[in-house]
Structure to design on (64 residues):
């Protein structure tokens, strides 16, 4: 899953929903901001998926 390659600029919280994006340089980044909150003009190449951190520190894709 791309989430394991993604850059995180914060400490994720178990059970919190995050949003995975592909950046313009084709790297991946996790954000607290959903695609809807960006208002359709986010600074990313594309939205990939919403994800949640589980208690065992693995990620699960949950969609939007």
């Amino acid at each position: 899953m791309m989430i394991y390659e993604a850059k995180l600029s914060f400490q994720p919280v178990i059970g919190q929903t995050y949003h995975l994006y592909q950046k313009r340089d084709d790297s991946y980044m996790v954000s607290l901001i959903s695609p809807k909150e960006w208002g359709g003009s986010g600074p990313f190449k594309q939205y990939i998926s919403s994800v949640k951190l589980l208690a065992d520190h693995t990620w699960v894709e949950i969609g939007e």
